[in-house]
Amino acid sequence: xxxxxxxxxxxxxxxxxxxxxxxxxxxxxxxxxxxxxISDYAMIEDxxxxxxxxxxxxxxxxxxxxxxxxxxRAPIQFSIVAVNLDxxxxxxxxxxxxxxxxxxxxxxxxxxxxxxxVVKRVIPEGDTMCSLCSRLRRGILYRVxxxxxxxxxxxxxxxxxxxxxxxxxxxxxxxLKGMSPKxxxxxxxxxxxxxxxxxxxxxxxxxxxxxxxxxxxxxxCGSQENLQRVQIKRMLREWDRQHPGRIDSMHRAFxxxxxxxxxxxxxxxxxxxxxxxxVNPQGDKAFDEDDEEAxxxxxxxALPAEARISLAALRRPGTGSGGG
Length: 324
Fold this sequence. Notes:
Helix 2 (15-40) packs across helix 3 (58-73) and helix 3 (58-73) packs across helix 8. The protein has 324 residues and is α/β, with parallel strands linked by helices. The longest helix has 26 residues, at 15-40. It is globular, with a radius of gyration of 26 Å. The protein contains 12 helices and 6 strands. A 6-stranded mixed beta sheet has the order 3-2-1-4-6-5, with helices on both faces.
């Protein structure tokens, strides 16, 4: 049978089909990463009652949405209760969250506390309000967790929040400290988890648009453009735009810490280390300024084997000390 050009020509992919494929990939990635974080850090156990703190922003909506989906396929049984703290901010649409949660069939609790007036009264105009607002909110949510019988408190911090926090602490606090994916609360009575620890903010933005979450903007922290956290976020976004993959690399560093190559004496016994005479393949290359990969020009390949000079060769008699 004779074929025509139209029979053999590849079919064009419609924009609708392309969007569907990309959305499916996004969904799989989000659920995989959240499932991985829960598994790696033992965040949720059989019989847990997970209190998901819902602010009305894209992150907490995404967290609740993904946890509800994972709940249906998880090999363990756990329940979910969504909690929103209505801080009585002017213009806050109090009907939005109850209507959304009811439409999803989610158990929920709305806690009404006028922390907005407290923060505005105590914090001078122009100063940042996050610290006091966070402390008030944290204490209230701990109490609510007790009242609801929650065994875990889930927060919507994502990968970019983890990175932003470590830079804030380095730049302004003099500490190498980020966020923990799982921790015991400061009152010693609650376990706090962050299931979005591996998820990129850009993916949450795309998911929120796809799922059409009824986003509620925050008129406290959301209106403070002078916040250092906002500046850090812009810096990270610009880095990622100029050097794709840099954010992923920095985030992986959280799980690959080498205490002997930092300076904290509480983490590594610098005072007592002694040479053993045994070769240590993982040991420091003391005379190298940095790893070859880190110093290489972007896009350049590593040095060929014949161009490398080993430290052992430099130590042979007559070749010099190499201590330049």
